[in-house]
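Final report, Chapter 2: Outcomes

The project's central promise was a pipeline that accepts a single protein chain and returns its three-dimensional structure in a standardized token representation, suitable for archiving and comparison. That pipeline is now operational. To close this chapter, we reproduce one record exactly as it appears in the project archive, with the input sequence first and the structure output second.
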Amino acid sequence: MLRYLAPLALLFASPALAEPAPPNQQTLVEAELAKAPKGTRFGLLVVDDSGKVVVAINPDQRFIPASNTKLFTTAAAYALLPGVDQPDAEGATQVSLVPGKKKGVFNVVLTGRGDTRMSSAANCQQDCLATLADAVAARTKVAGDVIGDDTRFPDQRWSPGMSWNNFGSNDATATSALSLDSNELMVKALPGTLGKPPLLVVPPYVTVRNEAVTVAPGGKANLVLEHTVNSRDFRLYGELPADAGEWRERIGIDDPAHFTAWTFAAMLKARGVKIAGKIQTSHRPVGLVDDPDWRARNAVAIDTARGGPVLAGLVPPPLAEDIVIINKVSQNNHAETMLRRIGRVEGTGSLEDGLAATRALYERAGIPREGYDFSDGSGMSTYNRVSPRAGVALLRWVDGQPWGKAWHASLPIAGVDGTLKRRFLGTPLAGNLAAKTGTLNATNALSGTFRAASGKRLTFSFFANDVPNGESAIPAMEAALLAIYAAN
């Protein structure tokens, strides 16, 4: 379902974007950027509400956008997914009882449909896995297999171009149609006896081989959790000072459907349900992405848990609320799942279908095709590229959509919330600038809007690539934006 109005070309004239920036202001900005770490490559485009260029630095060069990718994914979700501001019935997780091998014993099938917000927390109030466990326990006290079914999407857990060192972290947890607790767990470590391993608190779903050591007081914790991909195994190594206090690390789950089924089985046992079978999963082979039989069966066979009647289902909050989560806190897994859901509108729910649908949307919106390429929906892929002109074009196009104000409200606000909560504090841009951040290896990004000293509203897209290792371009970028604020 396409929910957008005029293409970008009708919102502002493209010749205006070709105008050179005022020379004095351009010089001020370039002077601030010259203070950045040597070797950093910048791209910046700032325009006013008429489309007139305020500052332009390499506006048509392409940059790794990091989490600015989420701007494109979430705008596409508003435009293409039906009922974004309504309860998410389309994404509802369902539970069914399906006859098992033993007479009178039913297998329990959890069928995921793309909801990323289902929770197992003890204090859960909405979209709670416990609700489905209660429904099963009320029907039977013996269950066969407990099956996590995520066949609504093909089994493509990660997108191309993600860095290997991110696997196993909560930044790159696997994507699945059946998710729980954002597919994350917490590992904790406390200092042990000097020369001995730290004391670990490890969730029972995973194992951690502890090769770390407790060292003398002083200094910072230097611990690394290394992960074996497509497993539940981690290795901890490094040093933890005796006075370091508690160390925490959020880790990602490689098979969310299995993790959800495993957690559900534990909930059933706690409710007095005997599990007579095994914890199993049902994944959709990637080789069947274009199989027309899958296309024909999905609406019926998958949604009814392979023929079993739906016993109970959850209705998650509106997707608009998840878009706020994605943009405010830069939630990668939710963004990746959102792209797959876009791919389900007219396709199979594959990564390729999602990317194709968004490309077609951006073309209709008038965003310059040479200004972007995407391999994922979150920005974790180093294959993604965006030009400042394409970033501004997206933001300007969103301005003309009926959902534009709601989408802009999902962006972090400088000095107030999200990933900008501690930035621009004590400056005129605090509480003023609303923008999406982006941080990745050697990359900083920021794109959004703010009002200048004159009250004029400015739209900008700002990228820094090739930032030297261990350094940041953020101070120079913020100084440049403050100079632009003062000069307009």
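Archive annotation: The first strand starts at residue 41 and ends at 48.
This record, like all others produced under the grant, will remain available to the consortium after the project formally closes.
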